[in-house]
Design brief:
Elements: H1 4-8, E1 9-12, H2 17-21, E2 26-32, H3 35-45, E3 50-55, H4 58-80, H5 85-105, H6 110-113, H7 116-125, H8 132-141, H9 146-152, H10 158-173, H11 178-187, H12 193-201
Parallel strand pairs: 2-3
Antiparallel strand pairs: 1-2
Length: about 210
Amino acid sequence: MPSRLTRLLVPQSSTVPHEVAAGRPTAITLACQDAAVGLSLAERLRRPAFRPYLSSDVIGAEIGGAVKNVLAIACGVVEGAGLGLNARASLISRGFAEMSRFGTARGARTETLGGLSGLGDLVLTCSSTSSRNFSLGKGLGEGIAPARLLGDRRSVAEGAATAPVLAEAARVAGIDMPIVDAVCALLDRKAMVDEVVAALLSRPLRREDG
């Protein structure tokens, strides 16, 4: 569970650090329960090319920031396995559906999940080759063993630790998150890439808005 500190203030939305340092345009969500504190911090953080957007939805910002790491691993797998742009676009959109189901069930607001700390964070992390989670997934897609990938890393791919916790929380709550389950299967070596792809594509047909 988040600590009292993270529930007070959560600056969210992934960024490409060197772009921020270079002064390229960047926007983030700054989630804070105290509106006055949030506004004060936003005024201090803002720069001509760095724009914070305030939110009081700390839960939504936390969930968006956590779930996108797992989905970025899945997008990396798509890249590493050479599955194409259609597959990546499909995964991002269906991954967002999973994020939305889980987030709203936990009290997140739909506008937060559709904003910078949800959908925006997801698109960036699932598209950036500099993302730690994306690069982990790319290695999995290329057939490299998870233990080797995780053992060789000098940085933390948070999604690897988040995936099993998220999958269990979803299972207990009865929330369908097949992409998250697929990432867990790959990390645990319970299935190979072609098997999880076949399993996802062979799921029963359903309404997109269901």
